């Protein structure tokens, strides 16, 4: 899967080997360019394969363009999915970022 693939392929949240958690966008502008860049920066700190899903679109957490194409606005939810030896740490770090509103000043 390429970094900007928005197909329904990718990790399956029903797979027992995939960590999966749902997060709501709490920042004012949702998953816009700056927020997407911050999410990519955090995702790149881990070896885990991390994907983000909204509706039937799934993208790599390492793709700024893919993340922005999800169009997740304030109050909308995305599903974070990860596999790999550090998947749990990656999910925790990404959840902390999202719950902190991407550290934006609203």
UniProtKB/TrEMBL annotation:
Sorted alphabetically, which CDD domains does this protein's record hold?
A: PTS-HPr_like
Look up the record and report any one GO term of the cellular component aspect: cytoplasm
- Alphabetic keyword roster: Cytoplasm, Phosphotransferase system
Enumerate the spans annotated as HPr domain. 18-105
Domain of life where this protein originates: Bacteria
InterPro entries (UniProt xref): HPr, HPr-like, HPr-like_sf, PTS_HPr_His_P_site, PTS_HPr_Ser_P_site
Under NCBIfam families, the record lists: PTS_HPr_family
Q: Per its record, how is this protein called by name?
A: HPr family phosphocarrier protein
Please give the organism: Gluconacetobacter aggeris
